[in-house]
Amino acid sequence: MNIVQPPPAPLSPDLIARFRAIVGDKYGVTDAAEITPYVTEERNLYTGHSPLVLRPGSTAEVSAISKLASETRTALVPQGGNTGLVGGQTPHHGEVVLSLRRMDKIRDVDTQSNTMTAEAGAVLQTLQQRASDVDRLFPLSLGAEGSCTIGGNLSTNAGGTGALAYGVARAMALGLEVVLADGRVLNTLSKLKKDNTGYNLHNLFIGAEGTLGIITAASLKLFPKPRAVETAFVGLHSSEAALKLLEISQNEAAGSLTSFELLAEICIDFCVKHGPSIRDPLSKRYPWYVLMEVSSPRDDARATLEAILARGIEDGIVDDAVMAENLSQRAAFWKLREVISPAQKPEGGSIKHDVSVPIAAVPAFIEEANSAVVKLIPGSRPVPFGHLGDGNIHYNVSQPVGGDTKTFLDRWHEVNAVVFEIVLKMGGSISAEHGIGVMKRDELPDVKDKVAIELMRSIKAMLDPLNIMNPGKVL
Amino acid sequence: MNIVQPPPAPLSPDLIARFRAIVGDKYGVTDAAEITPYVTEERNLYTGHSPLVLRPGSTAEVSAISKLASETRTALVPQGGNTGLVGGQTPHHGEVVLSLRRMDKIRDVDTQSNTMTAEAGAVLQTLQQRASDVDRLFPLSLGAEGSCTIGGNLSTNAGGTGALAYGVARAMALGLEVVLADGRVLNTLSKLKKDNTGYNLHNLFIGAEGTLGIITAASLKLFPKPRAVETAFVGLHSSEAALKLLEISQNEAAGSLTSFELLAEICIDFCVKHGPSIRDPLSKRYPWYVLMEVSSPRDDARATLEAILARGIEDGIVDDAVMAENLSQRAAFWKLREVISPAQKPEGGSIKHDVSVPIAAVPAFIEEANSAVVKLIPGSRPVPFGHLGDGNIHYNVSQPVGGDTKTFLDRWHEVNAVVFEIVLKMGGSISAEHGIGVMKRDELPDVKDKVAIELMRSIKAMLDPLNIMNPGKVL
After folding, report:
1. Positive or negative CA dihedral for B116, B122, B127, B130?
2. Residues of chain B with pLDDT > 70: what percent?
3. In this structure, what is the dihedral angle of CA atoms A84, A89, A90, A96, given to the nearest 10 degrees?
4. CA distance, residue B253 to nearest chain A CA (Å)
5. Best exposed site among A136, A354, A370, B38 by fewest CB in 10 Å?
6. Quick one: pLDDT at residue A8?
7. pLDDT given at position B4
């Protein structure tokens, strides 16, 4: 990846000592082996380096770190669970890593106000579990939930499978505690559903990928826990049929429609071929599949789902469908959805996209992108799947059978360009849920409203005039 | 009200002509009689004055107006339906009024993507109707919906009765078109549910009350239209019981619980006494009432509501309840809720508050506020009612029976101070849904996080360095 940020001056031993003194030597990591997990990531797509990983235990310590960083113009890279997919959490130029993981307290759970206040380093799954323990739902859910942190989820405005009914991470935050570049602490933590006292500040930091300040805590919404969740796996002859089924489902289930995932036939092919103990839930293959879920606080989820499928069959939209009869069958359906990405690996190189278009445009997008990509690289195999209910498609492309992997992957940007052009023509986004990081930074000015880019630069200059907050990311 | 903004220099005839040339003379109003409706408001609480009301017909015209205003340091007061309650839309110092009402086109309705793009001057009720015409719901709903505009709704982040299930105005916006102070046009209009390409800009303008730029259009979310709406009027012995009923209702109905309004007994007293053809829906009086609604896309709303009430009776929470048997009975229940404010008028002066506290704190807030207010002004009569499901209480106080109205109203700020102190102690907001405008501007620095105020000032200086956008409002 092309990263143009100039490397900062190496930190003096004295400055390293001053930073370590803030958190205590134990939590100011300088040992290279201990640093490795903070500067590498699972896919080995990005590798950074850093002389120092700071692991503060309190907001006051984060504030002191920012203040010293500001005084000494030391660049900081904030990091949560280190599961980001666009290189946003990696110190590409030897920056100091500020790991929030030790700040993992749940400060407050209020079941009457339906709120939870948690520190940035709390792991998403821990929050889900804590909500469940008090008979509530924290609906943010994504693949990395066992290790990603709520601070990272908010900094990247994570999406995931719960977004259809409950919205993305942004929709779950009532307020934030944020340490600014100069060490000031902004506190908009709040249990209030309504508060119209002045400008909305917390949304500025959500999705800013740590470039405007460091989220140290958040007040979050809780929801009633569904009593019944019913899941169906549906075979269809076209993506247009899937879109029609979505409309029927929303009209029948409204907010009870909690998942609506689209999968192309090739996804099933790959999963059945390469996934561990994966089998096709239907008796024959179909060009398209939908994995859908209806959740309800009452006992009507199954009846609702049956009504949707009956209507779909009646209207000639649904070719075949099976409903999960028990939890293990439900888990098997979801397993299929989750192994698509790993199941692509044995098929060779994969060029990935995380795009969104208006929901109505999804079928046209897939059709146009498929023919453009195959025209560009004959034999390449589009593997489209994703959150149809959000218009969010993980448009992956596997290399031609028997082709050279490197030759294929070298054309990553060419394929991107072809796909992004179609996305933009349709009023879509080149990053639906993963963010910009360094991966898409250089494309951003070309795809975003010019005035929006100008405002982003003004906001960055206002909040981080010395460019010490995750420099070189996003902008 | 204490408004400290210095009056701008009077506009020269030449400058007035230049502004009128942008919109055409017909839409550059200088006639005093024609100007009156733009500088006065229904309650006669605020009266402003202006030499010129501009009524642009396009975003390009708004941009040209801003550009000229910026070049000539002319202050602009943007205005929608002129229904705001905090003086935010009034030209208190002879500013030019920029009325968006002519820009009322609905640019696009997309029933598959569930989005609608409308210009700022579109009246809320028109948008509701247009959504309904295509079998969708636009859930923003408030008293002024027949005349307020979506631009004003977004600029003030309106709440209303639909917020419990669907959120406030902010939650319904996917993107905005905004004319900045210098005439640049920011375009974040979007039909996308997920878009993580850079900083979130549109939320900065939502709730900014026209002080950062002029919203000219918005892309909005549509929802499935409920098939069945069931309404109940419930008598209870305490506000704690109302809170317990809310919890039961949310657990039973989740997102299908679309209204949960709390009313104190005195509200019913006033309504029955003064409201036109209002009668008490229950056979005897109770200390507290809840007006609640369950909406569903299927035919289960009545069963759900019955289950909630049965559980409430079983748990000793609900003392009496009646469900609307038809549309006119439903309308009668809502009428009761809507005439509370007018029904206070024959009882003399009323000091009003639009506050929110965490939902769990509502009973304690009402109890503490009641005793503090009555201690301050013996004989004064608290009239608390509002959106319990959002923790948003319209905490009104009627004057003592037979007392002097002016003497009572002169103590407005004293009563505010007593109520706000309790609100703040409980982590609440002094403006839940009406905004700051000029009414609460001077209180804002005392109640808001210090760093938040500093950031608000920095943002204002960045976006409107000449202070021409609705000067003297909010900050």
Report:
1. negative
2. 98
3. -160
4. 6
5. A370
6. 59
7. 42
Sign of CA dihedral A70, A72, A73, A78: negative
Chain position carrying tokens 């909010």: B474
Q: Which among B185, B203, B449 is the nearest to A200, CB-wise?
A: B203
Q: Does an H or E element contain A89, and which? A: none
pLDDT tens string B272-317: 999 888 999 999 999 999 999 999 988 899 999 999 999 999 999 9
B234 contacts B292 by C-beta, under 8 angstroms: yes
**What's the pLDDT score for residue A9?**
65
* Residue A245 φ then ψ, to 5°: -65, -35
Q: Give the number of beta-carbon pairs within 8 Å between A and B.
A: 282
Q: Chain A interface, mutation test: which of B187, B195, B244, B436, most A Cβ atoms within 10 Å?
A: B195
* Backbone torsion region of residue A353, taken as left when φ is above 0, otherwise alpha when ψ lies between -120 and 50, otherwise beta: beta
Concatenated DSSP letters of B353-405: -EEE--GGGHHHHHHHHHHHHHHHSTT-EEEEEEEGGGTEEEEEEEPPTT--H
Q: Model confidence over B426-443: pLDDT tens digits?
A: 999 999 999 999 999 999
Pinpoint the alpha helices (H) of A317-471.
327-338, 340-344, 362-376, 405-409, 412-425, 444-447, 450-463
Looking at the predicted structure, is the pLDDT value of residue A194 above 50?
yes
Dist. CA B127–CA A468, nearest whole Å: 45
Q: What is the largest CA-CA distance in chain A?
A: 75
Q: A192: phi > 0 → left, psi -120 to 50 → alpha, else beta; which?
A: beta
**What is the mean predicted confidence (pLDDT) over B240-244?**
98
Q: Please list, in sequence order, all residues whose beta carbon lies within 8 angstroms of the beta carbon of residue A272, skipping any fewer than 6 positions away.
A: A278, A279, A280
Chain A CB contacts of B432 under 8 Å are 192, 194-196
Taking the C-alpha atoms of residue B436 and residue B414, their distance in angstroms, rounded to an integer, is 18
Gap from B137 CA to chain A (nearest CA, Å) = 11
pLDDT tens digit sequence for A35-46: 999 999 988 889
ipTM: 0.95
Chain A CB contacts of B430 below 8 Å: 197
pLDDT confidence of residue A334: 94
The span from the CA of B420 to the CA of B120, in Å, is 33
Residues of A in contact with B242 (CB under 8 A): none
Helices (H), B276-339: 301-314, 327-338
